[in-house]
Write a structure and sequence with these properties.
The chain is an alpha+beta fold. Helices cover about 25% and strands about 30% of the residues. GO terms for molecular function: cytokine receptor activity.
Length: about 750
């Protein structure tokens, strides 16, 4: 009982679910059946009367900027079609009218959104009109096609896809057709953007491709394509316009390239490269092609819109090509080589070793701990200046790999560098991608056969030469001249004597050294030096002999230095006062009369003349005084000595003549005055000491001037003395001047003594 109840409940439940599924299935079928109706709900077709329809749209005109290029053709049997192109300002909604006059058949299709319509023709003649924009508006446009069912030609095209490609100075056009159109030769017409006339049509020699030449690289072109008419394609409409941008003729300019080791990932580095393109707004992006210098595939092409790229690469050498591109051309590539990175931590640290068997085989060894984690490896080996070779392999048992049957044999005396890379993929050891695909395990170097160096260190120079030492410097031997691993340098030096021999010395230094401090040398000695390098195969050639000489030994006395120091110190301390004292004795300073108070009080020309006369008398006085001093120091002057001095009288006569000339200059030219002068001279010669014009002061001329000035007779209370006549005091002055001359005329003055007094 209970069992039947359970079965009944299960049956009811089953029927309930079946009813539900039935309803859902019916609704789904209805949606599928009526979906086309809902999809084309906006497109409607109705019959029309030719006269009424023509009157309804007769206000719509044919305009070049409106709907145009209406064409009706036959693709194949019973497949007729009309196509057109929209206007510049169209609403992309069309009205399609088909009229067949023989049967008075008229059909109107509204709200068509695609620029094509299938054509169903019953009569021979027909007319098609396509109206764009709202048909009821005044600015609507239309296109008209009239034809016959017999005259409809089979049309091929336009092409389904067009791919224009700019070449240097040209354009290559590749097309594809619909399946029913087949493959056809094509014709291409073109014009520069902005031009309204088409250039000549170029017809292709091969199907589906054409070549246009002699284009200007900097211009943008408009291109149209059509098929070449044949018996199978009697009608070939032109395609729509395809715009071909200007040709990219300049290459990108590299700005910076940075290589940074990634600490979290051993054996990898971050490559950051930036560039710029000199022409703006003519490219769509950049293409970066990356591949390994060893030639291992693939060549990965990356696309970026920014002028920069970041890659995670191993320590291997890579090459990058960077180009700008647009939809028609690709610029020349800028090439950048990423050199192989040699990390001091992995080069020659023992983790990778090489055993050379012969010129076609060698074995690499690495630590076995890598086997637990990696099974895919690649080994690269190369010589300097070459791209190198590679071998990728799978190894999960032993930590070594023998590379054999090398196509290019290993050369003797040539250094090779071998590198082992690890790849995390286990499915295949071939590299799928360049970026972030491997890491470097280790690097080492080897020779197939070593030899001694064929080159010597160059640029041997000497610096910091002293009495017994010098610093020796040189340049390393080029790698191509080593022919083996350099183990060190040998420095040979001997004393250099002319036609004499001396003991040779040699010193060995490390291979990384380029300088050496030579010590324990002899002072003032010339040395001849040569340097050579050596490898496991032996010593190489020596460098050209270089000669240097140590500084000579200089005898140095401490006592002499102390004495010189004392003399210099004494001169600095006591030299200045002694020099001043000697100068005062030898070159005494003569007072300048121009600085005296008497000169400052001169107020008339007569006083100035009087002062000039007194200055002359003062000079004579000083000369006579020096002469008397000399005579007093002499004990007795013999008469023979006096007779040897004839020039004394001459000097006296000269003095008298000078005094007489002075008198004449003042206007005294009479004979009476000359007699008076002679009388005064005789009187003053015997009674000079009783003269009223004797002065005790040192500046005698100034005292005389001050005593004589008040004796002048002033006229009318004026300060200006009368010089029309000759005052009595002036005559006395003349006599006094001659007294000076006669008083001290026994000793003539020298030119050096008399001349300064007159200045």
């Amino acid at each position: 009982m209970s069992g039947r109840g359970v079965q009944s409940g299960e049956a009811e439940t089953k029927y309930c679910w079946l009813g539900t599924y039935t309803h859902v299935l019916v609704v789904g079928l209805m949606l599928v059946l009526y979906a086309p109706i809902f999809t084309h709900v906006h497109v409607s077709a109705e019959k029309c009367k030719p006269k009424n329809i023509s009157t309804k749209y007769q206000h719509c005109g044919i305009h070049p900027d409106g709907v145009h290029n209406l064409d009706c053709f036959r693709k194949f049997k019973n497949d007729n079609k009309c196509t057109w192109e929209s206007g510049k300002h169209g609403s992309k909604s069309y009205t399609f009218i088909l009229q067949q006059a023989d049967r008075s058949h008229c059909v109107v299709n509204y709200n068509i959104t695609k620029p094509s319509r299938k054509l169903i023709i019953y009569d021979l003649n027909f007319t098609v009109e396509v109206i764009e924009n709202n048909a009821g508006m005044a600015n609507c446009t239309k296109a008209v096609f009239s034809g016959s069912k017999k005259t409809l030609k089979r049309s091929c095209g336009p092409p389904n896809e067009v791919l224009p490609t700019r070449t240097p100075g040209g354009l290559q056009v590749n097309v594809t057709w619909l399946r029913e159109d087949g493959s056809n030769k094509i014709s291409v017409r073109y014009r520069a953007l902005g031009s309204h006339s088409w250039n000549e049509t170029v017809e292709s020699q091969l199907p589906n491709t054409a070549m246009v030449e002699k284009l200007t690289p900097s211009l943008v072109y408009v291109v149209q394509i059509q098929c070449v008419t044949t018996a199978e394609c009697t009608q070939c409409p032109w395609s729509k316009n395809y715009y071909v941008p200007s040709e990219l003729t300049t290459r990108p300019i590299l700005v910076s390239a940075k290589y940074t080791d990634i600490t979290q990932k051993t054996g990898c580095r971050l490559i950051s490269i930036t560039w710029k393109f000199p022409v703006k707004d003519v490219y769509d992006g950049y293409r970066v092609t990356v591949w390994k210098e060893s030639g291992e595939p693939p060549q990965e092409q990356l696309t970026t819109s920014e002028p920069a790229i970041r890659l995670t690469l191993s320590y291997s050498a890579y090459r990058l090509n960077i180009s700008a591109y647009n939809n028609a051309s690709v610029s020349p590539a800028a090439t950048h080589v990423i050199p192989q990175h040699t990390d001091a931590n992995i080069l020659g640290d023992g983790r990778l070793n090489v055993t050379v068997h012969n010129s076609t085989a060698f074995t690499i060894h690495w630590r076995p701990d890598r086997i637990r984690k990696y099974v895919c490896y690649v080994v690269e080996w190369m010589k300097q200046g070459h791209s190198g070779w590679y071998l990728s392999f799978f190894e999960d048992a032993i930590a070594r790999k023998t590379v054999s049957s090398i196509q290019e044999h290993l050369e003797p005396y040539t250094r090779y560098r071998v590198t082992l890379h690890l790849r995390p993929n286990k499915n295949t050891c071939n590299m799928k991608h360049i970026n972030n695909s491997e890491s470097t395990y280790g690097t080492t170097e080897f020779y197939h056969t070593e030899g001694s160096p064929v080159g010597a260190p160059a640029n041997v120079t000497f610096h910091n030469v002293t009495l017994n030492s010098a610093v020796l410097q040189w340049s390393q031997i080029p790698e191509e001249d080593l022919r083996g691993f350099l183990l060190g340098y040998i420095i040979y030096y001997t004393e250099h004597h002319y036609q004499e021999t001396s003991t040779a010395h040699n010193i060995t230094v490390d291979p990384g050294s380029t300088s050496f401090h030579m010590e324990a040398l002899k002072s003032g000695t010339a040395y001849q030096v040569q340097i050579s390098g050596f490898t496991l195969a032996g010593e190489g050639i020596r460098s050209i002999s270089s000669v240097f000489k140590t500084d000579p030994k200089v005898n140095f006395s401490i006592r002499g230095a102390i004495a010189a120091f004392v003399v210099v110190a004494c001169l600095l301390v006591f030299g200045s006062p002694v020099i001043k004292r000697v100068k005062a004795i030898l070159w005494p300073r003569v007072p300048n009369p121009g600085h005296s108070n008497a000169v400052q009080k001169i107020e008339s020309p007569g006083q100035l003349k009087l002062l000039e006369a007194l200055v002359t008398l003062k000079a004579v006085e000083e000369w006579d005084t020096k002469s008397f001093q000399i005579l007093e120091r002499e004990a007795v002057i013999p008469s023979q000595t006096l007779s040897m001095l004839p020039h004394v009288r001459t000097c006296e006569d000269d003095s008298l003549e000078m005094a007489h000339a002075w008198s004449e200059r003042d206007g005294d030219s009479t004979a009476d005055n000359d007699d008076t002068t002679n009388t005064l001279l005789d009187t003053q010669r015997t009674h000079f000491q009783s003269s009223p014009f004797t002065f005790a002061g040192g500046y005698t001329t100034m005292e005389m001037f001050q005593q004589l000035t008040p004796q002048w007779t002033m006229e009318g209370g004026s300060n200006t003395p009368s010089i029309e006549g000759e005052p009595e005091d002036f005559t006395v002055l003349k006599s006094m001047r001659l007294d000076y001359v006669r008083q001290f005329s026994t000793s003539p003055p020298s030119d050096s003594e008399f001349t300064p007094a007159l200045v």
